[in-house]
Amino acid sequence: MDNQIKQTVREIIMKELGIKEISDETDLYSIGMESIKYINIMVEIEAAFKIRIDDETVIESNLRSVNQFSKFIEKLLN
Q: Which of 39, 44, 49 is nearest to 75 (CA)?
């Protein structure tokens, strides 16, 4: 997995959730992610990677960790 993608995703998630540290496998919902924060994270990710993410694809992917978000973005970019 591309470390730059993972680092960017991690920074976006930490900023949105207001935390200073997060592991790659932490369940984001267990540390405060809710639907509006999820939407904000997706908007930030779209801007950072200059991509458009289909809502249905996001729902089907059930993204709950830095690793899951990173793998999802990497797939979209390739």
A: 49
17, 33 contact by CB (below 8 A) = yes
Listing DSSP states for the chain in one string gives --HHHHHHHHHHHHHHHT-S---TT--GGGGT--HHHHHHHHHHHHHHHT----HHHHHHHT--SHHHHHHHHHHHH-
In single-letter form, the type of residue at position 35 comes to S
Residue segments in the chain with a per-residue pLDDT below the cut of 70: 1, 60
- The dihedrals phi and psi of 19, each to the nearest 5 degrees, come to -120, 160
